[in-house]
Write a structure and sequence with these properties.
By secondary structure, the chain is mainly α. It has one domain. The chain has a two-stranded antiparallel sheet with strand order 1-2. A hairpin with a 2-residue loop joins β1 and β2. α1 packs across α3 and α3 crosses α6. The longest helix is centred in the first third of the chain and has 28 residues.
Amino acid sequence: MNRRDALKKTAWLMGASVATPALLTQWQACQNVARPGWQPLILNNTQARTISALVDTILPATDTPGALDLNVDVFIDLVIKELMPAEAQENMLAEIDAFDARAQEALGTAFAEMDTDQRHEILTQEEEAAGTYNPNIWGGTIGEQQPVGFYREIKSLTLWGYFTSEHIGKEVLVYDPIPGEQIGCIPVSEVGNSWSL
């Protein structure tokens, strides 16, 4: 990554941090979107189906809701439209198309049309080919971050959308909007679930 790309990425991240409160308000509204009536903001219908299939494969429903149950695909569409500059939007849309083309080349059908085993096969290949994010210390990346690729970015957005959803924050993770008394020494077994922010 050259200096210009690094500055663009830094500016994009700074813009994302400033826009986050407004985005989270919109994200809460996204969670109430009726699935059959969803009209993507920037994705075309094929891209929307691909993203929906991706988030459903990354975080399927189990004893907790899956990513589709929480409209994480709607969130990703919103993030692409509201937080990414025009060039990054174009790149992301092209990457979605390229991902679907790789899936069709590998198994002869669109990713959204594949069964669960086929999707897992494609995502295993994508995971192996993807880069990784550098470690962070106090919000600063260690070393020069190399591109991580489409799959890793979508996986990161999926996790972001999922764990910032109201349902997960209140029903799955421990949620305490106004911390009560400070209890300094309790057994870890009494802590329970991990805490949401």
